[in-house]
DNA sequence: TCAAGTATGCACCTTTTGGTAAGTATCCGT
DNA sequence: ACGGATACTTACCAAAAGGTGCATACTTGA
């Protein structure tokens, strides 16, 4: 139902919607690593270098509440939890691939532009 | 101290790089409209409902400095400027299409999850 | 018993981002 | 001469995002 008024600011296009799901400083990295298979919390933390506990948990929860990742608590003696992509998450990661490719192909240019902008502030 | 990384903190994957270019509250919408052809500033402002001058200009400048859009000043008697996608920008928009599709297909779910998260704060 | 590892939660603070509202300079129609 | 349109620019704020570090509760190993 297209509700094109100023009251209900629905997404203007699919991309807009998608960005709400994948934007977040660490989400692409998390998805990148989860795409390799289920990963334990600690392992993920060591993979996604530089992320803090707070951020990692927070982003994982958001991805979980969006149905992208699945948290599995094994209820074991020493805590044991892992995270994996849901089928929905897998479909997202697949849709992300062209953007990955584009980014890879132009990584240099993007980095240069970023530095330029950061410098001129 | 969380800066134990002496390496060049480049992007972890292409997607990560790409997100630096397209994330911004109004960028997807801007790209969406520019994809339809060169657009004058005022026209764009009327299309991207709710955006302020400050934001529109700012995002356009960033997209321009990233080589995604091109600003054309016709140097005419009453001011006349328009914005269009560069070939680079066009290639980006093309790479974005699968994500658009994914977002469209799951718009409902995404909106629901967003609302849920917004509510539980 | 004490440290270290597991997976989180929470409080506090800084940085980044976005919004509001004003001003600039030029031109056009009335 | 004045209001409105053009395309911006600027200053000031509020909100969101992110970072730091301490606390929890449980377990295993030294």
Describe what you observe in this structure:
Two copies of one chain form a homodimer. The longest helix of chain A has 19 residues, at 87-105. In chain A, strands 1-3-2 form a three-stranded antiparallel sheet. With 121 residues, chain A is mainly α. Chain A has a single domain, classed as Arc Repressor Mutant, subunit A. Helix content of chain A is 57%, strand content 10%. In chain A, β2 and β3 (81-85) form a beta hairpin. Residues 1-9 of chain A have low confidence and may be disordered. Chain A has helices spanning 14-22, 27-34, 41-47, 53-65, 87-105, 107-119; strands spanning 39-40, 69-73, 81-85. Chains A and B meet through α1, α2, α5 and α6 of A and α1, α2, α5 and α6 of B. The structure holds a DNA duplex (30 and 30 nucleotides). Chains A, B: Pfam families: HxlR. Chains A, B: It comes from Halovibrio variabilis. Chains A, B: Keywords: DNA-binding, Transcription, Transcription regulation.
Please sum up the structure shown.
2 copies of one chain form a homodimer. With 121 residues, the first copy, chain A, is mainly α. Helix content of chain A is 57%, strand content 10%.
